[in-house]
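Quick start: what a row looks like.
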Amino acid sequence: MYNNEVNTYLDNLEHPLKAEVLQLRGFIKADFPNLTEIIKWNAPSYQYNDIDFLTFNLAKPKDIKLILHRGAKNKEMPSTKLIEDKSGLLKWAANDRAVITFTKLEEFTQHRENLKSLIQNWMTKL
């Protein structure tokens, strides 16, 4: 189910990659229907079992960032990266926070299965 607050946010979004944002949102909602969709940190964000873990960052007009994290509450930092990434999509900001960046639809389309796997793996670590 789509969240009306997120619908409104996206209806009003002025971003050169808005079509790609909508595609990514559709992918997330289709492949992960059990996630709760909200607006948090001024962007679409997703929760699993009430834990924030996936947030769009649309601050720059040239790209779309998906931030994988472990929510707003402080947790002990793992000694190694939270998940393995054979795809090379993740850029690690910390061992429990990673960023995936897309600049065009073709990148997302090419890496859709990798993205799905990364999100699934991340959810097991929450």
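That is the whole record. The longest helix spans residues 18-31. DSSP finds four helices and six strands in the chain.
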